[in-house]
Amino acid sequence: MTPTGQTRVFLVDDHRLFLSGVRTELAGHFDIVGEAVDVESAVEGIRSTEPDVVLLDVHLPGGGGRAVIEAVHRTHPRVVFLALSVSDAAEDVIAVIRAGARGYVTKTIAADDLARAVERVREGDAVFSPRLAGFVLDAFAGDLPPGTSLDPELDQITPREREVLRLLARGYTYKEIARRLQVSIKTIETHVSSVLRKLQLSSRHELTRWATDRRLV
Amino acid sequence: MVAGVCAGVGRWLGVDPIVVRLAACILALANGAGVLLYLVAWAVLPEEPTTGDHDAAPEAIPGTRRGSQLALAVGCITLGCLLLVRWIAPFFPDRIVWPAVVAAIGIGLVLARAGDSDRARWREAMTRLPTNPVEALRGGWMVWARVLVGAGLLIAGIGSFLASTDTLAAVGSVGIAVLATVLGGALLFSPWVARLVRQLREERRERIRNEERADMAAHLHDSVLQTLALIQRHADAPQQARSLARRQERELRAWLYDGRRSAFADAPGNLAMALDRVADEVEADHGAAVDVVAVGDCQVDEHVDALVAAVREAVLNAARHSGADEVSVYAEVADGRIEAFVRDRGRGFDPAAVDGDRRGITHSIVRRMARHGGTAQIHSAPGEGTEVTFELALEVESTP
Question: Is the ipTM above a cut-off of 0.95?
């Protein structure tokens, strides 16, 4: 872990208890420049402090984490977001990722892992928790129905990306995956970023419909 | 004017009630359509829940005076209409006009009672609603007298109409009399019935809301509050407190997010849910956090059940012996087969040199899978953690 200089972090969560917990955990690693508990104050605070990374709760009063990302990116496209949530609801998580978050971790994540994840998104990489990897595998599973116009560049993941995602879902770290596949960590990061890009840009209609469909299985 | 329908319509349209009243009068003069419209509107339009400022105005008129005023008004309107009709159509006889006016006054008296009682109920208790019309009639002898007089007038009106025309004699039929009575009764009670139905519906909606709230409160009490109490007691044993918190989190989440899914699928019969349950049990007993990620899903038959049992064995092993505080479980259903992985970052072991006890467990996992046509492999090295992989071909169609 390399806390080079001081990464400026902004926290957004409507649970003050959790907020103070995260602040304590991250205070040694980062410069916590501000906090907010709802969409409006978050957008305002982020615009005025211009942090490097925003730790963003998926569920927020006033429109959810997604509304914060959309509002901030209109004026400050360089601010990066890492979504953080206790939610298991796939559609909420996917919505925030598609709005532009660079990754998703669950709130049970250990403090060190969270710090590493913040560094990673600051450097422009994507962060996938095992759960998000599972969501993505689910979303890209199976063939598209015949007749759907398919952009192979965006609407499918490569076998190698799939392999990486499966290892992520199995609980492997980037380092462990790199060793197992005998490639560099940078290569793994490239794969994961590529998957994130597809997740955000894919027109694969399952991505929007799949979450609701799945609940009815 | 009579029951506040004009005022109500006026308020709804944003027009001065006087305008609506004038329009109603003109309509009434035209051919009685206004009267009909008025009565229909009274019966059908929902009564405003008169709270605060709204009920000040209507309540200013004392009930009895209101009743007689109303009856008089209805009578006058009817008389006016009928006179108008007679003027247009000269063959329209007097012997129809006067009984109709008497009957109209009767209706007015009876319906005035309905309006009063509704208002009184709204004012006294918004939630307590009558369950039958008889209860609505309870309210002192004055009211009863008025209702009786009204009903008597109505019946007299209908009767004298039938008697004065030749119909009764000519047809001599009881049928017409019965029909007339039924019509009169329907006319009398229809507003009550309509109101009653509306009130019952509102009451039901309120009850459902309350039940949901009670349900939620009961659930939170049984689960979350109990767990919080337990956690406070175990504050000095972090391992135990953490496992309690994780277990509660899992439960609450299942309750919040899986409710709909389980309503549609055979809840205990799904692989993902079976694995969640395994994780739950192991966490409760051993304190290690167990993370389950499932991709795709399928029904549990006896073979899948064996896989779940083997996974459980592996998770238990990891929780007991590895020393890791986190165990990852990943299961994927795709291409007609299930693959599952149980992984920990604990101390690991050398599979070639394990003690007897361990080998027994290992064999039980491997053999169990083999019996059901699947495979299990154990990868481990000292200091590297352990991963157990399972594979099982599905016999039935999967439900991705």
Answer: no
